[in-house]
Specification:
Layout lengths: L2 H29 L9 H21 L2 H70 L7 H15 L5
Amino acid sequence: MTLADYSVTAFTVLNGARIVAYFPQIICVCRDRTGASSVSPMTWGMFCSANLATVFYALTTGDRIIAGVFALNAIACTIIFALIIRKRRTYAWSNNHAAGQSRSRQILKSCQSALAGLRARLRVTAEHRIAARHAGDRWSDAVEREIDEQSRNYRCGRLY
């Protein structure tokens, strides 16, 4: 065998081993629960681009062995890159969704509190209006019913 044959054999064996070495990274990204924050998508995108460039260069020079090996490397890098992007989007969505739910609960509680205060103020306003109409009258059940009706009208948006 010549030096060129040894070089091609070493290249094929080492790059074949490199394809196997991608699997721990794939497993690591799949198991990650923090949105793959410790893995750089830019790095894996560059690896994928470099491998694809080498595939196209090898095809232009007619070297199918190099093109095949680098095509496998490009596929593995693309898988890792896609997993990273998917993990980051899923993690960001789940965090935003949870934050949005807690924010929605806070808004709902503040609206309920504001509405309770508004109802109390409207009742007082209705009491004052009715009391002004019945100045000097004794407080009766009829006055109480009128206050309740006015309060209900305010709550339902029937203002007069």
